[in-house]
Every structure is written in structure tokens, then in C-alpha cells.
Amino acid sequence: MTTATDLAPLLDRLDALLALVARSAPPAPAAPDFAAAEAFVWSAKDLRFSPVKRVNRVEMTLLKGIDLARDQLIGNTERFARGLPANNALLWGARGMGKSSLVKAAHATVNARLAGEGRTPLKLVEIHREDIESLPVLLSLTAPAPFRFLVFCDDLSFDTGDASYKSLKAVLEGGIEGRPDNVLFYATSNRRHLMPREMIDNERSTAINPSEATEEKVSLSDRFGLWLGFHKCSQDDYLAMVRGYVAHFGLDIADDRLVAECLEWSTTRGSRSGRTAWQYVQDLAGRLEKTM
Predict the structure, then answer these.
(1) Which residues contact 66 (CB under 8 A, 6 or more apart)?
(2) Where are the alpha helices (DSSP H) in 235-273?
(3) Which terminus of the chain has fewer Cβ atoms in its 10 Å neighbourhood, N or C?
(4) Cβ proximity of 242 and 277 under 8 Å
């Protein structure tokens, strides 16, 4: 006859096993407090939204040479914030031309208009490229919330052997659940099709049906209804950017000296862009002992 004393070692082992399973199981996601801020950073490791009290952004008036993209993105963002149909957006092209700055500035511009009307603000959520596979979990937490969300991934691209782009395709369009009505996805990339050209060419050369292999790779970017291209700026646009920053921050410098210095600055870096203009103005402000 088996007694309680005989079962004690077995029960102890079962308790230890249950404790081990409990420790290894992922914690349930904490209920997010989306009223805490207007912007958040998604942490896939902790399954939580970290509030951002002050977004690192450039004022819309300081973004020069991208007027068409600016107007299109603001219009798309505002329509979404008001509950109207809108498209996922891909901002692609030359580095340093204000792609991510435009997304953050558009968010601020639209929220300022909503605030003036007493409307609920649009929430901005940043997801890092390496966390893109956790996007379905993010969406499951934002879908029931009484807010509208702009999910933003900066510098999105995929390399050879990276299959996580397939999960993104299903989320954007084509999956059974699809994208929740209160979520819009914006991404920036230096690549128009989010993948290196040699990756697409390799798929074409080794596939039985080359056109089908290519379609598989480029179809991800097709999920973005709004494509906004950013190209290298002209010298006039570059000078307009520099002068705009100088005027905004009240830096005292003669225009001929400013032109000579900022052109030399861009030449030494082999690039004319908004980022190059900003870096020059930061250097200038430091030399003039001015804060920005």
C-alpha cells in the first residue's frame, strides 16, 4: 500500500518541475498605458511599450527641398488620424535627406492640428528592425486600444537569408487578420525594394521560374500604398537647408563666409544632404559658442 510518505519525494520533484516551467515561460505582457505619452518605443524582449517623453525631432519648417513628399505624407497621416482610409508608407532613397525626420515631423504636425480641434492624439510607436518579427504581438496589444497608432520602423531592409520579411508581408496585407484598422505602418529605407539588388538577381538566376522569384522579393514593397522617393539634393537646396538652420538658431555669420564654409564642408564629406547641413550648423554653433 502506497502511503503519503512514499509519495513525498515524487511530489517534491513535481513541484520543482512546475517551478522550472513557470520560470521558463515568458511573462504575460503588461497592459500598456497608452495615455502616458504620445510616442513609445516597442521592446520585443520585454513585450512592452516604453514611453518617450520628448521625441527627438526637427521642426517641419526646417525640412527643405522635400515639399512634395512633405505634403503627401502629412495628408496621408492626417486622413488616417481622422479615421479615413490611408496607406502604409515607404520613404526610400538617398541617405541623410530627412526621411525619418519627416515621419516624426508629420506626426507632430498632425497632432498639433488634432489638439486644436480637441481630438484624440495620434500615437507614434517605433519598432526596431531586429524586432520586426514581433510585429504581430505589437499589433495584438494596440488593436483593442482606443487610440490610432503610427508604427514606424527606421532604416528597414533585409539581407540575404533573412526570411523575416515574409511575416511583415502578412501583417501589412494578405494575412487572415491583416492590419488592425487603428494601425498604420511607416518605414524608411535606402532601398526601394527593401532588399539588395544582388539578392533579387540571385533569386532570378537560380529559380526555375525567374519572374516568380523576383515577384516574391519585390512584392514586399508593393504592400506600401504610398512610395515617397528622396534623392540627392542640389547645391541650391543644400544652401537653403543651411541658411534655414542658421536663421532658426540665430547664428551670426556673413552669408559669403557661410556659403564658402558649408560648401567646403560638403565637399570634404562627399555629400550634400540635410544631415550634412545639420552637422555643419552644429559645428558652426560650437565655434560661435552658441547653444541650439
Answers:
(1) 97, 98, 102, 230
(2) 235-249, 255-269
(3) N
(4) yes
